[in-house]
Model the fold of this input.
Amino acid sequence: DAKTTQPTSMDCAEGRAANLPCNHSTISGNEYVYWYRQIHSQGPQYIIHGLKNNETNEMASLIITEDRKSSTLILPHATLRDTAVYYCIVRVGMSRNYGQNFVFGPGTRLSVLP
Amino acid sequence: DGGITQSPKYLFRKEGQNVTLSCEQNLNHDAMYWYRQDPGQGLRLIYYSQIVNDFQKGDIAEGYSVSREKKESFPLTVTSAQKNPTAFYLCASSIPPSGRSSYNEQFFGPGTRLTVL
Done:
């Protein structure tokens, strides 16, 4: 699976949009971009995933560049409860060995400030 | 409600003892996983199982063992051979990606924090 790089930490004011970047310059054509988040001492929570089109759900939006070498997770109106570590993961979408394919790096620690 | 449960939430163990962490899911998922997380680090895969009675080593399987006798259960044993067992352990499950869908969301349990005294 392609490696990802994310900033170690970011701050965001409550009510403003939080934009979390992720670089995945070695992503291959059949790899998807997944985002998870982990609130302190809890299990990670799935947020969103995409291949090449921008995606939106009730939690967030995912913007993937045309060359797919980077993406941005957008939380449109950050709240204090969005304070967490956010993980960007790229993995093959369809694989017999899918169990090996989620690699969580250190992620970005987002702090939403009042 | 459907979900994944892990017990206990906190576990203390004396050095040299084996300990088993429980993971149960009622989501009817075929695949289950065990991860380890150290402070300030990402998750690392210990073992995974795609189907009952089958499991595979992940990146850091040494010192751990698992079993998958039932679809709902995937217990992890931390043996005395594990050199540094103090960590946060997370269990997850997922549906295998189907022929048309890439979707392979992993659902995580609340975790067990193991401390070796």
